[in-house]
Amino acid sequence: MKDVVSRCPIEEVMRLLSGRWPTLLLYYLKAGTKRFSDLKRDNPTLSHRMLTLELRKLEGAGVIRRTARPGYPLRVEYDLTPSGLRLVPLIDGLGDWWEEASQSFPPQPAAKSEAA
Hints:
This protein is α+β, with helices and mostly antiparallel strands.
């Protein structure tokens, strides 16, 4: 990870939640415990390796908990820790903000297809 520049707590949070996947993973885990395959299904464009890296990062920060269930095959489940649950209202707030703010944004032009 990059060095902290300002020692601001917001910068620390942004380091943890920056990127395309961490906030989405927290969003999907707010519904409850999920297995690795469930999270992969929720995020089909997310590679196996990237999902593993992001889950490890969030686990290392104490935001999610990884639980390995015995048996064959090994079942691994993920859920939010109490610290992670405290982030849920913030993530919901971001979604609510987007719902309101996006109404005032100009429409985006459609992407050009390569077939044209």
